[in-house]
Amino acid sequence: MVDQEKVTIKINDNGSIRITGPVDLVDGVGDKYEVGASFSLCRCGQSEKKPFCDGTHKKIGFESSPRAK
């Protein structure tokens, strides 16, 4: 059995989705984005660097704090 690092995806309160661990991020046609060991994806829809977060959620007052049930 191969020991693989666990990937964590965290939905930050009022902010981005943070991915930590070895993953491939691909677009709609299968082309890969260059990503590091961790990165943040936009959740507010207003980032100038989509699909990545650029911190715009702070400027626009984005609010969302979903919880697992």
TrEMBL record:
<dbReference type="InterPro" id="IPR018967">
    <property type="entry name" value="FeS-contain_CDGSH-typ"/>
</dbReference>
<keyword id="KW-0408">Iron</keyword>
<keyword id="KW-0479">Metal-binding</keyword>
<feature type="domain" description="Iron-binding zinc finger CDGSH type">
    <location>
        <begin position="24"/>
        <end position="63"/>
    </location>
</feature>
<dbReference type="GO" id="GO:0046872">
    <property type="term" value="F:metal ion binding"/>
</dbReference>
<dbReference type="Pfam" id="PF09360">
    <property type="entry name" value="zf-CDGSH"/>
</dbReference>
<protein>
    <submittedName>
        <fullName>Iron-binding protein</fullName>
    </submittedName>
</protein>
<keyword id="KW-0001">2Fe-2S</keyword>
<dbReference type="GO" id="GO:0051537">
    <property type="term" value="F:2 iron, 2 sulfur cluster binding"/>
</dbReference>
<dbReference type="InterPro" id="IPR042216">
    <property type="entry name" value="MitoNEET_CISD"/>
</dbReference>
<dbReference type="GO" id="GO:0005737">
    <property type="term" value="C:cytoplasm"/>
</dbReference>
<keyword id="KW-0411">Iron-sulfur</keyword>
